[in-house]
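Task card 7
Instruction: Convert sequence to structure tokens.
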Amino acid sequence: MSKKEKNGISKHTDQKDREQKIEQRSAAIEPEQLDTMPGKENQMETKPIFDDDFPGMQRLLGKVALITGGDSGIGRAVAVAFAKEKAKVVIVYLSETKDANDTKSYIEGLGGEALLIKGDIGDKQFCQSAIEKTMSTFGQLDILVNNAGEQHPQDEITDITPQQLQQTFRTNIFGMFYMVQAALEHLEEGASIINTASITAYEGNKTLLDYAATKGAITSFTRSLAVNLAPKKIRVNQVAPGPIWTPLIPSTFSEDHVDRFGENTLMQRAAQPVELAEAYIFFAWGRASSYVTGQTIHVNGGRFRTS
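Output:
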């Protein structure tokens, strides 16, 4: 057997092992609830998988990326993946200091560099200060990932208070506007903006009316901003996740819901955050997506089952 054939078998085996590990972890998700929203990853009984053995290929070498909500969940997986691709990473987070420090330490253990910035992206002045700190530390900004979000399930639309409605929109969509406004003067030709949308923007969700509405707004924002920034040669795209095992799930849903989480997909399981990372890398890596803007990658386990 040739060396090439052996390497091919090894790679196939590695991928098969990875998929088995992810499926086993997803199948082992225990019904649980976290006391506070949006939840802390360090308090979860079943830890999400945010990394694997893939070493990276220096696809983002020389780039600086800012990721909101980069302390845990999808944001942590993206931050680690970007760092493995040799980007310097700025992690913006609300209050989950231990999760943020854990993510920073993990990245540094890989030989990467990470900057932590704590604050509320719903505050325009904070967004401006976060960008200023990024520029004063790294001197550039090439990739902006608008990922932070929150959700508050309610059975009836009449149960959604004005305070909840305002807060959900403030974080999920206003924060994206503020961050882009602050970052724009520093983004040069070839820069990439990546927004996190959701399957709820396309399928709807009976208990997440305000959350789904913000994700619909994000989808329109992504498409419109792509048109707006095309003359500047800045690409704008989004990832629309389905059910992903993150701290947001046990901190907002009942144990019964958590126990069934992800079963209504074609793959009949929830995804792990690591399974989304390559979608963000694709949009961030100019060589792969230089002719892609205003688009969506749906990472949702296939179309939702109706039964």
